[in-house]
Amino acid sequence: MTNLAVTDLHKGFGSQPVLTGVDLEVPAGSLTAILGPSGSGKTTLLRVVVGFERVDRGEVRIGGKVVDDGDRYVSPEDRSIGYVPQEGALFPHLTVGRNVAFGLAKSVRRSGVVGDLLELVGLRGWGSRYPHQLSGGQQQRVALARALAINPSLVLLDEPFSSLDASLRANVRADVQAVLRRSGTTALLVTHDQDEALSWADHVAVISEGRIGQFDTPHALYSHPKDAGVARFLGEANLMPGTVGADGVRTELGVLVLETWSTVPASGRVTVMVRPEQLELSTEADGAPLAGVVREYQYFGHDAVVKVQPDAGPADARLVVRINGGTPFVPGTRVGVRARGPVLAWGPADPLPEPA
Amino acid sequence: MTTTLETPPSPPPQSAMTPAKPSGSTRAPRGLVFLAGAVAVLLLVPLAFLVLEAVQYGWGAVVPKLFRQLTLSLLWNTISLSVVVTALCAVIGTLAAWCVERTDLPGRRIWAVLVVIPVGIPDFAVAFGWKSVFESVGGFGGAVLVMTFAVYPLVYLPVAASLRNADPGQEEVARSLGVGRYRTFWRVTVGQSRLAVMGGCVLVCLVVFAEYGAFEILGYRTFTTEIFSEFNTGFDTAAACALSLVLVLLSVAVLAGEAATRGRGGVSRIGPMAARLVRPQPLGRAKVPVLGAFVVLVALALGVPLGAIVYWLFAGTSSTLPPASVASAAWHTAFYAAAAGVLSTVLALPVALLSVRHPSWRAMTLERSTYLVLAMPGLVIALAFTYFSERYASGFLYQSAYLLIAAYAIMFFPLALVAVRSSVARAPASFEEIGRSLGRGRLAVLWSVTLPLVAPGLAAAFCLVFLEAVTELTATLVLIPTGAQTLSTQFWVFQTNGSYGQAAPYAALMILIAAVPSYVLGRWFDRLPSRATVPK
Q1: pLDDT surpasses 60 at A182
Q2: CB distance B439–A78 less than 8 Å?
Q3: Whole-structure pTM over 0.90, yes or no?
């Protein structure tokens, strides 16, 4: 069953096109993230779905019902969509309890529903406070309770965690995810943070230049991005030219095994992606297929990133290697680099994108 | 969930290739457009009456009234006075604001209060104060003296506000770019306040054009005093009408001139900037003379009128005054002013909502058109209403409370609009969007979200209009309901008879009543910069 279906959606402001043919299907009860850089049109997509903006062309269906196709239009108050904006936007003149009760019918307000909703977000007993007496994380949780109060068919979250401190963000994110799972609500989260999208959602839609580039599970998206652009956007990737032969793909890292789902011709030139964690370093340039010099070493505690300049190649070429934090590599050290496991490659026409 | 499918009015069935139509959300609800349009029309009604009246008399009757020696001398009187008063106010207001906001003048906080208070004293009460103490004050010199000290706060207030909000970083950047201290003052500081000075000067000019009471007391003839006496004594309505049109044209010229020099941008800054503490400029050896100047300014602007009123309060024969009359006049004054405050605020809301929430060139034009009211002196609005009720309503509404309240509400509409508009602009639209996503319709959201959020602005609008209406004299004299008296008309009766002692209590009470909303307004404007729109 599909809860939200967007078909061939076009939307522009003045002469500036923002969305140019978005197709998206969000399964009922799932958590979906829309991931894209700023200016990619992800917030506009959200505002069209909730009804604050009208489509120019295309169709939006919620629960199978058309809510906007450029002709027919259901106003926001009749769509039953919970909306959580960036700063929560709690009504400053109402208490927490009355904020949560805002969308409820008067008869329902006294039935303890508000208390239950506050319980759900872990804020029972806070109903008589005012928004300014709450921390940022608490405000976001109240905003979620307010959105859930109307028993929505869909909850939309517009970068709701970006205004929170980094230390608070992960916790609030997990809380919100747990609440949404418990209530079984379909939710759509807009974000530019790939860690957030990958860790939070069941499905991720990558949006760029007004279209959905790829829609998949986080795991599938990371391990088999459909092109180099998506691969670059989802974490660091070493992209290099390769030649397909009978035994695999020949690259500067030697002959590597191809992933079975790589879409490449039987022979010829391709683009190969090697994730940093697929590479390993040895201290001496002995039997390794590639030798180089360490140029940068960034230590993160749980792991470290080493940037290596290959001997054979231009001076500004870098291979990014993610290693366990154990051994420090001083810049200038000579190392050998070797790749583990099968790698992904795309077929001949794909030019190497500029590093992000 | 109840789902209603609206069919938008205009779009024909579109083929897949038709270009995109304009964004839906910026389309204003038709009810709001209709209301705002109705308000704009209502505000321009007096002007329409005036033109209609002139047309009825025909050129043959109006032209001879215009082209005569009297018109020329009135024109000279009005323009020369407003030029001199405006220039003096610009100098006094700007220098006083700079000294209070940017120098180490001792007692800056007290001076900041004292130099503003004269704005709350009606100009005719200031004239009364001077005339009742110094019998010889009068003519051009007297008019310049009284008007300058009565209205210079109209320049002081906006300039002080702009200096407070101006980014001191700009001055620091200028200094770092090698521009010296004095050139920095001229090029940056004065530049920052230029729009504020001009805005204040326009207000001063319009006030001088519209003033009646003060000039009547001082025996100085301007367009407004002449219109009033044509109307009052001779009932020469054709002449009053012709002169009114000239006065309106003068005011329009001033407003247009300001708009033209302001340039296309028009906005001096985008939002209130975080004001940092600026290191005050040391006055050095000028400290004592500057302090002396402030003492003189406050003594002349505040001491003379208040002193005179207090003097007559005790020296006069207030025992002969029937006390019930004061109470009744105070009641009528407060009632009319409060009703006008409510009406103006209610009228301002749809115009503010339309122009802030659904900006388009049509909404802007509509909003701007309401500022034309500024060019209509109260007397002209009152006369237009009088003609209307006599000619088209067979005197039905003439000298009824409705007409007086409507005249106040229209006269002071621009003040209400400024206050309501700024508070609507500060309440983010996202609150309204959330309200609608939670299942409440437009009207329910207006009631439960928008109105509570803009309530401080509505209160400020009410107070501004109330304050002005309490001290209004000219339109009130024309439109006062039969049998009723307000504080200002009763004051006028006694003052005209030379019963200064009996006039004084009315002036004192008027200033006291006006002081309450002034205090509320002061609190509101103080809170403006610190109010966060979105709580963190």
Answers
A1: yes
A2: yes
A3: no
